[in-house]
Structure formats: structure tokens, C-alpha cells
Design a protein that fits this description.
The complex is a heterodimer of chains A (about 500) and B (about 140). Chain A is of the alpha+beta class. In chain A, about 35% of the residues lie in helices and about 20% in strands. In chain A, strand 7 and strand 8 form a beta hairpin. Chain B has about 140 residues and is α+β, with helices and mostly antiparallel strands. Classes of the chains: A alpha+beta (about 500), B alpha+beta (about 140). At the A-B interface, helix 2, helix 3, helix 6 and strand 13 of A face helix 1 and strand 2 of B. The structure holds iron/sulfur cluster (3 copies).
Chain lengths: ~500, ~140
């Protein structure tokens, strides 16, 4: 609990298959989450070495209030980004923060490189290095179902894993967290792959006695009641983040066709409202969040002649609908689901994948890369060539694909077309084209993320204010969000 | 008649675990979900549906019949009362429970028994679990 003022760090050395735990009182002032992770990263990073060097650390941290207060659901991952070479910071929810809490570790450090594929089984009874050769090459969902059977602790455990993209070192490979959430951005999956690390299963059964029950119970109730009665609850439980699709489109802020346009004529068909009415099948929550903003849609697909169908439950969000939808001119939900399914199974960051495909399409139209090199002809609103390209990016058979596997910025460095490579700080943009505050926020924010400082909301709320006032608001919000991120409170995005 | 815990609307469950946190917090003064008498889990991974492992509030409880130290007593309306002081930790109730919902807490050497207090239902944000009069035998 918060008043213990001590951070328990689990340090895992993959090279020598050794683990150590440290009880660090000195880390307590850093609170937890991003504060603790940043401090550990500063101690352990090798600035002189490549981001994929085996010595580079991966650091996970939750916070003192994780799970035991409503909406405190995130775990942060900090690493040197294989995509940008710079600071890598990413957040994920579902069960990981809970599982870490119950295993008793507030921070997990992973260093070194295993001699052959491994996965780690981490609990309050220690760490096991397990052979993952049979899992290597498998998709994200197959890996998940096998680990589910192999590992104990159903319900309270968390299973995070990479797909083929991470194994093959695609610089924007993600790490899947419990099927429906991700450490999406900045390429943590490539780092897992370079360490021969396929997955982590975290599980714990530790008891933790409440020190001051009466006080805690009172505060918990207050926050719980607020969380379930605010309009956030209605907004995000109702339609989820996809509620933003229509809103942004009306504001002329929905990046469309590689940002050749900022509104989309098919926005209505792929809006949060349309998804909810036509394909939403259930809603889910991260452990400890009464809101439940995760929206799961049913994708039905014919996989063979003779009426052979399969159905799949896929999670959709504003960012996915933007990156794999409007940004690629996708006019139907089915097309978006096809692409979501592909990036999920391969283990790719959806935003970078979509924005990169946008660049590829325009670059091919403008003739700076050729259909021959690509093997297919990409076209907006056509899923087939895109699905093909995503698969080939994993294999990287030629120089073009090797470059594409490094993201849109690297591709534009090599082939030109920077004007239409939609990156800021070498990272592909997020789905809000609201104005200067958003661009400035993403360009110079701590992790080049729209979530750092909510520039998109500054654009809307301070529309008629001076640039100075907007900058001041960005800085203020970024500082405050760092505190929230130390506490690993969900930012509702 | 006294009400008992029901989980009739699991299709609406979002897996937030607020109910487990509430039971562990209020009844056991613990942060740990393992101390909760209600357990939410998936049928097989997060793509499948959520299930609730709860005491079904038997009218003639097998757990109480199996308990020979008088720690578990039938409760009117269904389920049991638990007199923790009398419990010796024999685990006979764990074996006896018809739906195998009783888990044993080795730290305290006592079973984790649902006392049908309804606390968990008050923290379910989507009215998935409810307290209702048992309607069997009709
Ligand atoms: S614990 Fe099991 S046997 Fe006892 S009342 Fe509940 S369901 Fe029935
Ligand atoms: S009714 Fe009371 S004892 Fe039973 S599961 Fe709910 S909170 Fe726990
Ligand atoms: S509180 Fe309700 S919605 Fe949340 S896990 Fe429990 S039963 Fe499901």
C-alpha cells in the first residue's frame, strides 16, 4: 500500500537465466508508474548502444493505487524505442497491473537475451524460464490459447505476448496484453523479439491486508460513485472512444486517405454509433474499472466456398477506426475488421501500420516506389493489397520491405515523400487532426503522443485563445498527466 | 424472506472485478481478490464469456451438513451463516459443497464462505449480480 514507501523491483536477466529482487526505499519519492520506470530506465539504459542491443532494458511498472481504486488500471512500459531510437513509453490495461499487484512486484526489469525462445512465468513464488520454441512463429491468439492452458491462475493472471512481427524485428511490433489491450506504440514487440522473449505470464495469490479499513472503504466508495455517475461513464461505456469518429469528422479533424482530406464521406458508416448498432456484441473492462470502455465487435468472415464462415470477436476503438479505416479510405466496418484482425494476429501497432500503409499508397501513386517492388498495387478502400503488404512486411524479402519494417519516417528517408509521411518525431500520427495544439503536442511532447498533453482537446476547448495561452495549457496538462501516469490512472483514451 | 446472491445477467458482465474487490475489502479487509467469496472468470480466455463462481444459497446446505463443529449453520432463505471461531479448518465443507464454490484460505486456515450479505451487488456497475429471493421448489 502507499504508506509502505518501498518499491519491490524484480530484475530478470535473460542471458544468464537469473533473477533478483530489490526493495528500493529510494524509489518511493518517484511514486510509481512512469516515475519509477523512468528512474530505473535512467540507471539501466545504454545510450551508446543500439535500441535492440541485448543489454537494453525493458521496464514495467504499476502504481501504489493499482487495482485497489477504481480506474487505476494501467501498467507502463519504458524502453528505448526501436522505431525512433528515442524514449519509448507505452501504457496498457486489462489484467497486468492487477497481476503485478498480486505477485507483489511494483516494477519488473527484463535485460539480456535468451539463447533460445523463452517465455517467463512470474508469480509470488518466483520466476520460471520456460521453453517457447513451440510457440515461436505463432500468432498472438494461438499463443494466448496455448499459454492459457499451460499456466495456472485463471482469472487473476495476465498474459502478454508478441506475434510474428515482434519475432522478426518489425520496428513497430506491439505487445498484446490479455487479448484486448496492447503496449501498442513505439515498438516494444521488436525488443521482446530481439531478446528471444515470446511472452510473460504474471500471476499472484498474495494477500495484502488493508491497514486503515474504515478510511479506505470510505474513499473507495466516493471514487467509485463518482466514476459510475459521471458522464464519462455514459460516454465511454456507451459508445467507447469510437464516439469521437463522428465528432471529429464534423470538426474536419478526422485524418482521411493519408491526410489528403480531414473529413470522410463514409464516416457515418464507420462511426461509433454505426459500429454499436451493427456489430457490437459486448463490453469489457480492465480489472478494477467499473466503466468498461472496451468495445468488442463481431466480425463474420467467409473463409472458404460452400458457406464456410468463421466469427471472431475483435476490439475496436477510435484509433483503429481512424488508422485502419478513414486513413485508408475504408468505407465499411467489415473492411476495417479485416485489417484489425490482421494487425492483431501479426502483433503490429495498428496506428503505425495504418499510417505507413497510407504513405505506401501515396508513394506508389506518385511513383517513388513501384508495384513490382511491392508485389501488389495498394489502393484506398481495398483490403486485399493491404493485407498482403502487412504479411510481407513481417518477412521482409527485399530492401523495400526491410525499410518499410522500420516505419514511415525511415521509408521517407530512404525513398522521399516526407511531405506525405504522416509522422511527428519519427512516430506515426494519432487520429486527431484538430489543429496546432495537437501537432505541437505530438511533435514536442515527452513521448510524441497525443496522450501526453491532450493537444486535441486544447484545440477544441481553447479555440479562441491566443497561441501563448494554448502553449501554457499544453505544458500544464503535460505536467499533470505525468502525475497521473506515476499513479497509473487511466486517462480514458 | 431473506434474499440470496444471484448471477442471472452474466451476459452484461464487463469483468471489472469490482464485486470481488468489494467482497475482499468489506468482508476480509484485504486488497487481494483471492479472499473474495465471489469469483469472476472466463469460460476460456477473454474471448469467451464471463462466469461467476458463487454460493448458490442452498436451502438444505450440504456444506453445513458436512460441518461437524457447528461453524456452518443453515440460514433462513438459503445459504449459510459462518461462525468463524468454531471452525477448525478441516475442509470438509470444501469437499461437500455441491457446486464446489468454497475455496480454502491456508493463511487463516478457514474456508472462504459467502455470507449472503449482498455487498458485492452494491458495487456491480451493471446490475449483473443481484440479491433476490430464492425461487426454487416451485
Ligand atoms: S457453499 Fe455450496 S453447499 Fe454451501 S450453501 Fe453455498 S452452494 Fe450450497
Ligand atoms: S454476498 Fe457478501 S459474502 Fe457473498 S460474495 Fe457477495 S460480498 Fe461476498
Ligand atoms: S462487478 Fe458486476 S460487471 Fe463487474 S465483474 Fe462483478 S459481476 Fe461483472
Amino acid at each position: 500500500m502507499a504508506n509502505k514507501r518501498m518499491i519491490k523491483v524484480l530484475d530478470i536477466d535473460l542471458t544468464n537465466q537469473k533473477v533478483e529482487t530489490f526493495r528500493r526505499e529510494d524509489l518511493a519519492p518517484y511514486i510509481g508508474g512512469i516515475g519509477v520506470a523512468a528512474k530505473l530506465f535512467a540507471e539501466l539504459v545504454h545510450p551508446d548502444k543500439d535500441p535492440l542491443d541485448s543489454a537494453q532494458p525493458i521496464i514495467f511498472a504499476n502504481g501504489p493505487m493499482s487495482t485497489i481504486f477504481p480506474v487505476v488500471t494501467k501498467t507502463v512500459a519504458v524502453f528505448r524505442s526501436p522505431l525512433t531510437g528515442e524514449w519509448g513509453e507505452s501504457y496498457a490495461g486489462m489484467r497486468l497491473a492487477l497481476a503485478m499487484r498480486m505477485s507483489g512486484f511494483q516494477a519488473i526489469v527484463i535485460r539480456g537475451q535468451a539463447a533460445r525462445p523463452v517465455y517467463l512465468s512470474i508469480s509470488d513464488h518466483g520466476v520460471r524460464f520456460k521453453d517457447a520454441s513451440a510457440l515461436w512463429g505463432l500468432t498472438v491468439s494461438e499463443t494466448g490459447s496455448i499459454l492459457r492452458d499451460l499456466e495456472p491462475g485463471r482469472g487473476h493472471r495476465s498474459c502478454i505476448r508478441i506475434g510474428p512481427a515482434g519475432e522478426k524485428g518489425v520496428r513497430f511490433a506491439n505487445v498484446n496484453v490479455d487479448t484486448y489491450r496492447h503496449f501498442g506504440r513505439l515498438g516494444l514487440g521488436a525488443l521482446f523479439g530481439s531478446k528471444n522473449l515470446k511472452a510473460l505470464v504474471v500471476h499472484g495469490e498474495r494477500d495484502e491486508i488493508i491497514q486503515d479499513y474504515a478510511k479506505y472503504n470510505k474513499v473507495y466508495k466516493e471514487i467509485y460513485n463518482q466514476a459510475v455517475t459521471t458522464d464519462i461513464m455514459d460516454k465511454y461505456h456507451g459508445l467507447g472512444t469510437a464516439i469521437n469518429v463522428n465528432g471529429l469528422n464534423h470538426l474536419n479533424g478526422l485524418p482521411t486517405r493519408n491526410l489528403q482530406q480531414s473529413s470522410f464521406e463514409h464516416a457515418q458508416a464507420i462511426s461509433g454509433e454505426a459500429f454499436a448498432e451493427q456489430s457490437l456484441v459486448r463490453k469489457m473492462a480492465c480489472a478494477g474499472c467499473p466503466v468498461g470502455c472496451i468495445h468488442i465487435g463481431l466480425h463474420r468472415r467467409e473463409f472458404g466456398p460452400g458457406y464456410d464462415y468463421e466469427s471472431k470477436n475483435l476490439s475496436y476503438d477510435h484509433e483503429l477506426i481512424f488508422a485502419l479505416g478513414s486513413f485508408l479510405g475504408m468505407s465499411t466496418q467489415d473492411k476495417i475488421y479485416e485489417l484489425i484482425d490482421a494487425v492483431e494476429e501479426l502483433g503490429l501497432d495498428a496506428i503505425t501500420a495504418g499510417v505507413l500503409l497510407g504513405w505506401i499508397t501515396e508513394a506508389c501513386q506518385k511513383g517513388i516506389i513501384s508495384e513490382e517492388q511491392l508485389g501488389v498495387k495498394p489502393e484506398f478502400d481495398e483490403t486485399k493489397p493491404y493485407l498482403e503488404i502487412l504479411k510481407i512486411i513481417i518477412q521482409q524479402p527485399n530492401e523495400l520491405y526491410q525499410t518499410l519494417a522500420r516505419g514511415a519516417f525511415a521509408a521517407a528517408q530512404r525513398y522521399g515523400g516526407h511531405e506525405y509521411a504522416m509522422t511527428l518525431g519519427k512516430t506515426e500520427i494519432a487520429g486527431y487532426h484538430t489543429g496546432y495544439a495537437n501537432i505541437l503536442g505530438q511533435a514536442i511532447g515527452a513521448r510524441h503522443s497525443h496522450l501526453d498533453n491532450a493537444g486535441y482537446s486544447v484545440d477544441q476547448k481553447l479555440k479562441n485563445k491566443t497561441p501563448e495561452e494554448k502553449v501554457a495549457a499544453l505544458i500544464k496538462e503535460e505536467k499533470w498527466r505525468n502525475v497521473l501516469n506515476c499513479l497509473t490512472i487511466c486517462l480514458f483514451v | 424472506m431473506a434474499k440470496i446472491l444471484h448471477a442471472k445477467y452474466m451476459a452484461k458482465c464487463i469483468g471489472c472485478y469490482s464485486c470481488m474487490l468489494a467482497c475482499a475489502r468489506v468482508i476480509k479487509h484485504s486488497f487481494s481478490l483471492t479472499k473474495s467469496a465471489i469469483q469472476i472468470h472466463t469460460a476460456g480466455g477473454l474471448q469467451s464469456r464471463f462466469l461467476a463462481d458463487i454460493c448458490r444459497g442452498c436451502i438444505d446446505p450440504a456444506c453445513a451438513r458436512a460441518c461437524n463443529c457447528g461453524a456452518l449453520l443453515p440460514r433462513s432463505g438459503g445459504g449459510v451463516r459462518f461462525l468463524s471461531d468454531k471452525c477448525m479448518g478441516c475442509q470438509d465443507c470444501v469437499e461437500a459443497c455441491v457446486v464446489k464454490t468454497i475455496r480454502f484460505d491456508h493463511e487463516s486456515n478457514k474456508p472462504i464462505i459467502c455470507i449472503q450479505c449482498g455487498t458485492c451487488t452494491r458495487f456491480c456497475p451493471h446490475q449483473v449480480i443481484t440479491m433476490e429471493v430464492k425461487d426454487d421448489g416451485q
